[in-house]
Amino acid sequence: MKSLFYVGMDVHKDSISIAVLRDNNKNVEFERQIRNEPARIKKFFNKYKDESLICCYEAGPTGFALYRQLEEMNITCYVAAPSLLPRKPGDRIKTDKRDALMLAKVLRNQEIVSVYVPSTSDEAKIDLLKDKIDEIAAEARYVEKVSKLRCFKGIDTLTALTFIAEIGDFRRFRKAQNFMSYLGLVPSERSSGNQRRLGSITKAGNSRLRKLLIESSWHYKHYGPSKTLKMRRKGQDCEIVAYADKAGWRLNKKFKKLNYRGKVSQKIVTAIARKLSGFIWGMMLGNTDSITAAQ
Predict the structure, then answer these.
(1) How far apart are CA 51 and CA 111, in angstroms?
(2) pLDDT in tens, 195-226
(3) Which side of the chain, N or C, has fewer Cβ within a 10 Å radius?
(4) Phi and psi at residue 11, to the nearest 5°
(5) What are the distances in angstroms from CA 25 to CA 8, 87, 150, 151?
(6) Where are the chain's structural domains?
(7) Beta strand pairing status for 52-58 and 76-80?
(8) Nearest to residue 107, comparing CAs of 79, 72, 129?
(9) Contact (CB, 8 A) for 44 and 34
(10) Region of residue 286 (left: phi > 0; alpha: psi -120 to 50; beta: else)
(11) What are residue 117's phi and psi, to 5 degrees?
(12) How many CB atoms lie within 10 A of CB 153?
């Protein structure tokens, strides 16, 4: 009878850290690092050709080449959504070895949420679009602002560029609350006499930006600067990074608080989006010395 092994992989451009767990066995079966080369990958997995393997790695800048190679070898592989991986509170020690083992355990516990893997032709078109977006973002009028907004978790080049292009001059919003209102993220109000009743958000203003913020806000269910986020922040002013980091921890704290109070997920992410819009406003106006300016 074939043994079942769970393989977690922490993938980088030049190397892959691998952790292997056997089904129903708490001990680590195997750990090692190999070079990220097709021949080395094939050689490693051929050792398990008579066993049943299930593999996974986090979606990231290395793309889907590893996924496709393993599928060609008839090995089941999942590409995990990084933002939806379960994290232990207070666990801030990150190494390639620990990440690989974490992925193997999460896979064995059936807690993996995988991303959609596009076909090679679709991926080529996506890469073409990304190149065009990066080209526009590198223009002198956008580059500094885009790099600042990319310091926030959940905001990458496309979202940052969309905000900057559609808003233009952030100074037209005197307060963070004015910006939140423009995005339709403030509660509607029905007041009469001494009674004041707040309802659902107004949904007035720019719906495209509001939807982008809602999507970004899901990332704050967990917080801790990932390797990808650290790379986006590389070379940025320390004050900018500190502002984005403090905002991240506050948004995560609010997410947990609302979740503990039993609020439904959609209401939670809407509240987070409202707060996040305030931090974006503060970042674009240079109010990074005091995070309370965005509240």
Answers:
(1) 22
(2) 545 445 556 668 899 999 999 999 999 998 88
(3) N
(4) -100, 130
(5) 15, 21, 41, 40
(6) 4-108, 142-294
(7) parallel
(8) 79
(9) yes
(10) left
(11) -105, 115
(12) 26
Q: Rounded to 5 degrees, what angle do the CA atoms 89, 95, 98 make?
A: 65
Q: CA–CA separation, 21 vs 48, rounded Å?
A: 13
Ranges of beta strands (E only) in 128-280 are: 187-192, 195-201
Q: Are 171 and 178 in contact (CB under 8 A)?
A: no
Q: Which residue has the tokens 């905000």?
A: 163
User: Closest by alpha carbon to 80, among 30, 28, 7, 25?
Assistant: 7
pTM for the model stands at: 0.64
Q: Are 125 and 132 in contact (CB under 8 A)?
A: no
Structure tokens at 103: 């992925």
3-class state of residue 165 by DSSP:
helix
Q: Which two tokens stand for residue 15?
A: 């190397």
**Residue 171, number of CB atoms within 10 A of its CB:** 10
Number of H helices, E strands in the chain: 11, 7
**Which is the CATH superfamily of the domain at 4-108?**
Ribonuclease H-like superfamily/Ribonuclease H (3.30.420.10)
